Amino acid sequence: MSAQRDPELDDLFEDDPELRQLAQLIRARPHPAASVEPSPNFHSVLKQRLMREAWERVSQPQLPWYRRALAPQPLAWAGAAVGALLIVFAAWSFAATPGGTHSTVKVSSTLSGNTLLLSFNQPMDTSSVQHAVHIVPATEVTYNWADNQHLAVTALHNLTPNTQYVVTIEKTARTQDGQPVAHTPPVQFVTSPPPPTPTPTPSSSPSSPPTPPITGLHDVAPVGAPAARWSPDGTKIYIVGPSGQLGAWPTQGGASTSVQPDGVSLVAVALDGAVAYFRDGQITYGPVTVTGVQPIALGFGQSGLVFATASDVEASDQHKLATFAEQATSADISPAGDRLVYRSSSGNLHLVNLTSGKDSAVGPSAGLGDWSPDGTKYAYQTDAGVFVADTSSATSSRLLEFPGLTGLSWSHGNQLLLSTSSALSLYTPGDPAGARKLAADQFERARAPSWAPTAGGYFAFRRGGELWIGKVSGAQLSIGPPGTAGPNQDDVVNGFMTARQNQQADQAGAYLDQAGKDAFSSAGLSLTYAGTGSTLRYYTLLSQSGKVVVRLVLTKGNAQSVVDETLTLKSSGGKLLIDGVSDRPRTSFGAGPEIVRVTVAGDQVQVFFDSDLDQSTVQGSVTIKGANGQAVSSQANYDPRSKAVLLPAGGLSSGATYEIAVGAGLRDTPNGRQAVPYQLQFLGP
Amino acid sequence: MSSLPSRRDEQSLVARAKRDPGAFGELYERYFLQIYRFVYSRIRDQTAAEDVTSEVFMKALKSIGRYQDTGKPFSAWLYQIAVNSVADRYRAARPVEDIDDQRDLAIAGPALEDIAAQRDELRQIWAVIETLPAQQRTAMVLKFQEDLKIEDIAVAMGKTPGAVKLLIHRGVTKVRGTLGAPA
Q1: Does B162 contact chain A (CB < 8 Å)?
Q2: A403, A408, A520, A673: which has the fewest C-beta neighbours closer than 10 Å?
Q3: CB A26 to CB B144 under 8 A?
Q4: Which fold has domain A107-190?
Q5: Which pTM value belongs to this model?
Q6: DSSP-assigned letter for residue A199
Q7: Which residues contact A105 (CB under 8 A, 6 or more apart)?
Q8: Diameter of chain A by CA atoms?
Q9: Is the pLDDT of residue B53 over 90?
């Protein structure tokens, strides 16, 4: 019991000092049960019961039919999700050899989160089994036995995403009656890639930029419930007034143009500037009209107008493009009109592919949000902050913890405008300072922020019953000059690599300019690996201004071959394309701890590994070297939770070439394997 | 009271425990003794307290998938299960009577430690608290023994914070009425 006074008790007995004193006195007296102990074995027996029950619950999940249908076969590749529940099963058996008589020990395994559950068909010698479990990449684990047949092996830290794990029970394992086991095929599984999020934009300055000033803030017009929509060039904004009057207002002020006098409840603007709206039970888009529908969102696909109702998505001829799995209350159609998100009546966010009609539930949301400019991601509100859904995997991850979020908008320059009841804030993904409040009294009670598409930092928001427009000076609103890094660079590389994974050479080729095509050709590199029987996974080791280093892991059976490709990117005609490649095989891959990602931002370089590292070997084994090969930073700290070595980068020159050097002195734990030396060039922050 | 883990750590652990038996095992280790002692303080019988403690953690395991973080400590949820399980135990024994009218069920007389407490003037306080109606006693134990916040007690007991304040106020007033004002 705390010796400090309890303010709640002081408040409760505020009017009676005698009771207040007595209450604090009671608080200071130990209850007779305060030191009572249960019977000696109760704690451990109950824990065993609980662990067995927990094990059974996790290993017998109520999977939906499509998950059961897609479940891997025993001993096949198993997939695991990091941060999301995905159960897989594997089973194997091995012979126990008690003096010539053979009995078979069968083992089945289930992976759940960071825990591998092993179930033996006969009692085992728990100590020998624990000592016999061997995991590659090296992973520190805890062991929990429900009984001597059920073992939960739990990683101390998150498994590394996008990584193949091999778990072996070595021959030293014994059954409870001491029989050795003869052979144990390993369990293999590959963890899923992390859900893509907007990549941190490399900063040209190690210090955080100041809060950008706001200019041109002005009250435009009264606004009704429907969302205002920008013209494609950002020079006009279409506002639906309180009576449904639809007008177009110049961004920089001036007289409005009336489009409809009243009754409009939805509006959308096509890429050619044509306006579609819903009025008097009819959707109107130029000469096209659709009647007898109740749309909740309008948009434009390749074949023209599309609209969403509470139950489906339809084209202007009312041909159904997709049917919703849940009743929709609000929806948002992607800029290209090929995807849609909706929020269901139960509060779930769903992602719908309008080409295939597939409806994927993403997770709970507090509201809709905004599409990334390329339409591959969707940022949305949850109670915990901003989440980003990836359209290819229909998975999401938290981008920013931001309580009280009421609205957001995603700019072409990869900046998010966020509203709460008290402020508007600007967030650049990767900015260690987090979201920056924009300073203006008018931002109190601002909501529904909306970036203008291309018009130099203009944005709109609602406040009270009015629509306001302002301008953020210095906002990142374009892709940037040639060689500029940013999310578009990663989007290009991800699109390129995804096409290669899918054996779509033509689509992959579309990400290359002529120089890029020539570079691939002259280096003898294949865009795809069709016919090799291999599967390809990849991860980005480093992404910096105009350069991305990608590691390709080709797997066939138990064999892996690994190559690092350095892709250079260049903007051509306003489009970012890959214009060069060099490759470097990594023949020793997997022999020791491997780098999986390097980030260079602000005053720190972070080097992430696939294995848990022996902290005592980090210092001096992971260093930054200058162009002359001399170590410029040997000070290294290790964060075991993220398996990252942190190196100070404050003294590095911006734009100069450096090298991350991993030496053989680095060892993983608990396996104790040495790293195979590796170097990776990067530019100073 | 042992030091509590940070909210963030606890949130993370609870989230993991929904799919990871090992993480649930960690939660069990953190809260086992706390819950056992609370249950024991209400039931006053070792065997019955162990039965109820088992029920509490089994129910927690079965329900953790539906647990939603409302900003309250995870322990408040466990105490809620414990309070209900204790109440169920009483109801099973005396289905007709109101729980507020019930006294110690498991044993007829005061527990051995309470007999010892009679010799200790200060510990008489708890002996008096044990005579309070069940709801008052639960609120008092959660506040004074378990050191919970009133809002968390409200969660555990399924009452409003105002009702919990009233129960505690009445309980302390009753203690004063029985033992007199503190010296």
Answers
A1: no
A2: A403
A3: yes
A4: Immunoglobulin-like (2.60.40)
A5: 0.47
A6: P
A7: A93, A94, A95, A96, A120, A121, A122, A124, A175, A181
A8: 97
A9: yes
